[in-house]
Amino acid sequence: MEEHVAVLAADDHDRPAGRAERKGGGAVTTLPHRGGVRADLETVFRYAYPRVVGVAARVLGSRDEAEDVAQEVFLTFGRSAVPAGEAMGWLSVAAAHTALNHLRSGRRRAAREEYVRERDAVAADTADAVVTLDERRRVRAALARLPRRQAVALLLRHSGLSYAEVAAALGLSPGSVGTTVRRAESALRKELNRHASSD
Q: What's the CA gap between 75 and 18, in Å, rounded?
């Protein structure tokens, strides 16, 4: 399964404002801060931005789009009351959720098709480029069909978070993370096989 999830990182080059999701999927009520933005936003942004972009890029396959997702996530975080000690986990989960929302919404389709056309036009071996892009598309589409909790657990684990970090971010016991990730990998494999056989 590593190879399938690794495909999502190979080209790594909607939630309303005022609400956000916490570990268990519950909402964090946002609170206004002085000036409307929490005081620690810049500090948290500096250390968490690379991970937030990395998680989103693994889903979307585009650094530019991942940076757009990171902007959304940090805007929501800036108005939230998420404790600073929970920021990294919260931001990682929010990045995965927001990127999956973008993936599922279909808003990216026109931009993706244009990107594929341009990339194929300059590729040294167009056939290889198309096969690679098609494989990434299939993996992302299968990931978007997984139950949200499984998809997020899989994304976080394969984005470099430790079992303990995934557990903290999703409100799971550390011992259950491995089982959750294995089930997600199995579900992803089944989705890929099911759609491959129907093509």
A: 9
pLDDT of residue 108: 52
pTM: 0.65
What's the first-to-final CA gap in the chain, in angstroms? 21
* Residues 9-34: tens digit of each pLDDT: 444 433 333 333 344 444 444 444 55
Phi-psi map region of 147: left, alpha, beta (phi>0 left; psi -120 to 50 alpha): beta
In terms of Cα–Cα distance, which of 114, 98, 116 is closest to 55? Answer: 98
Structure tokens at 8: 């999502």
Name the nearest CA neighbour of 99 among 140, 139, 135, 50: 140
CA distances from 95 to 24, 128, 171 (A): 15, 30, 16
